[in-house]
């Protein structure tokens, strides 16, 4: 390993150590991380935690109020346990958020890095595609593609991932444009390093911080978009439980049983708020001016 690579590794380690220290001192971030950790455990162990089968019907006991024996949050119009559906809904919502960010981040980082580093015709083609996609409202574009492919959980995740990469591409491109002029890139060129080696071993490690921050907010945006699509009938299809489709199916019973709408709405709000807390804290911790 060269002296430059050792220095880069040392700087990156100290940066992440300082970032973790800053996060520990941020109360909102720790609250958000704690909530997300609990929600993740609930999603992973939903089969063991949920008191009832989320799709099992009990037509003899519909619209039971909260605190009914055996049903802490009551039942919906088909007698299904609301708490169990919320628990299984966390699995669907979190899975959508992380998979969408995984797809969008991978595609966006690669295309943005290539565009910013090589420039020329490659940059022009990629950025014109980005400009065209940015010309359409995000949700309208997602609705159009889901309508073409058909409403389902997998299609929704693919569509949201493929319309979300443009933000990552523009962000990474702007950073790479400045990094490629730095002296450590010129030094790598002078010792004969290939473009791919410079891009993936020297430039992209310096982009990880801003991508992590963008991804944190991206998970929140994906969860909201998935809930919106499900609410409109283009996302997760019944009888599967997802917070968005729980809202749309229960709105007719909002006056009779407000908890049927309030519960999934609160889950969406708490999850997105926790992600925003963490994202804000990460942004501040990774900003060098905030550490002065």
Task: Describe the protein.
The chain has 292 residues and is an all-alpha fold. It has a single domain (3-59, 77-291), classed as MetI-like fold (Orthogonal Bundle). The chain is built from 12 helices and no strands. The protein is elongated and about 75 Å long. The two termini are 32 Å apart. The relative contact order is 0.15.
CATH architecture: Orthogonal Bundle
Count every beta strand, where a strand is a DSSP E run of 2 or more residues.
0
State the end-to-end distance.
Answer: 32 Å
Shape: elongated
Report the top-level CATH class: Mainly Alpha
**What percentage of residues falls in helices of 4 or more residues?**
over 70%
- Give the averaged pLDDT, no decimals: 86
pLDDT under 50 segments (min length 5)? 3-11
CATH superfamily: MetI-like
Multimeric status of the protein: single chain
Which class do the helix and strand fractions yield? mainly alpha
Query: Which percent band covers the strand fraction?
Result: under 5%
The main pleated sheet reads as: none
CATH-defined topology: MetI-like fold
Q: How many domains make up the coordinates?
A: 1
User: What string gives the helices and strands in order?
Assistant: HHHHHHHHHHHH
